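## retry 2 of 3
previous attempt timed out at serialization; input unchanged, resubmitting
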Amino acid sequence: MAVAKKKTAAKRGPKPKTAEKKTPAKRGPKPKTAAAKTADKKTPAKRGPKPGSKRTVVKSAVVVEENKVVEAAKKSVERTDAALAKAEEALTKANDKKAAAAKKAQATKTATAKRQLDTARAAVEKASAAVTEAKAASKTAKFELKVAEIQASVDANAAKSAAKVAEYAASLEAKKAADLAKALAAYEAKWLVSRAKSDKKKVSAFAKKEEAKGKVFGRKVRTKISALKQQQATKAKPATKGKRRGRKPAAAKASS
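## retry succeeded, writing output
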C-alpha cells in the first residue's frame, strides 16, 4: 500500500497590522464666558456687628410645652367617650330588640317568644350596666383631665416666673459694668472733696507748726546777731594809756 503523503501546511506570512486606535487628544478647559467669570468672583462675607457696637437686648423666650400628663388625660377622655358612645349604641340596639321581642311574644304567646323576650331583657340590663360604667369612666377621665390642666397651668406659670427671673438677672448683669463705673465715679468725686478738706486742714496745721518753728529760729538768730554785734563793738574801742611801772631807762639815769 502506498503511504499517503502528509500535506505540509502552507507557511503563512505575517499578519497585517491592524490600524492602531487613536486615543482622542485631551482637550484643555474651555475658556470661561463673562457670566462664568462673574459667577466665580466670591462675594465678600458679611461681617456681623462689632462687639460692643450695639447693646445686647435680652429677649425672653418662654416656651411652655404641653404637659405629658395632660396629653395622656386627653387621650383617656377620648377613649372613654368612644366607649360610652359604643355602649349607648349597644343599649339602643338592645332596647330595639327587646321591643321587637315583646311585640312578638304578645302576638304569638309562645314559649320560644317568651324566652327571646327574657334574653332581650337581660341584654338590655347588661347594656344599661355597661352604659353606667362607661359614664362613670368618662366622668373620671374628664375630672383627671381638669386636674391635669390645672397642674399644667401651675407648671406653666412657674416656668414663666423662672424665665422672668432669668431675664431680670440677665438685665442686671448687662448693666453691672455701667453701674459700677457710675458708682466709682460718684465715690471718686465724693472722696476727692473729702480729701481736699482733710488736706486743707492738715496743711493749715502743718503751716502753723512751721511758722512757730520759724519764730523760735528767728529769735535765736536775732539773739546771736546781737551778741556778735556787742562782741564786735568791744573789739573796735581804742585801748586807754596807763602809767608804766618799773625802772627808768639808762639814758635818763645818765642825764641826771
